[in-house]
Amino acid sequence: SIRVAKAFGAKVTVISSTPGKKEEAIKNFKADSFLVSRDTEAMQAAAGTLHGILDTVSAVHPILPLLSLLKNHSKYIMLGAPAKPLELPVFPMLMGRKIVAGSNIGGIKETEEMLKFAA
């Protein structure tokens, strides 16, 4: 999804729980910036800076810190599918007029189109 977003002209920030993926995200995938979700100071500094988040994590993880990164009128899209329910804080969504949605990977046709596009 990084390459696709970059191809559409988006500024991409990769968010990871550990700094180990930073070099790969910046050098290989050409992300514009990198943010460690466990770095409280960095997360607070980035609050309200993102127009949208594509969350690909399939494990249970806290949503509130990620919602705080969004500007008002922004979207948080779940692409990962955790086995257990996630806690979704409603108040930050209401106050920031943020949209939370989900999407699956699509069918065979969409997957083939994406692979051709990314090649």
Features:
metal ion binding; Rossmann fold; 6 helices; metal-binding; alpha/beta; globular; two-stranded parallel sheet; oxidoreductase
What does this structure look like?
The chain has 119 residues and is α/β, with parallel strands linked by helices. It has one domain (2-118): NAD(P)-binding Rossmann-like Domain (Rossmann fold), CATH 3.40.50. The chain is built from six helices and five strands, in the order αβαβαβαβαβα. The chain has helices spanning 2-7, 22-28, 40-45, 64-67, 90-96, 108-118; strands spanning 13-16, 33-36, 50-55, 70-78, 99-102. The strands form two sheets. Strands 3-4-5 form a three-stranded parallel β-sheet. A two-stranded parallel sheet has the order 1-2. α5 links the parallel β4 (70-78) and β5. The longest helix is centred in the C-terminal third of the chain and has 11 residues, at 108-118. The two termini are 13 Å apart.
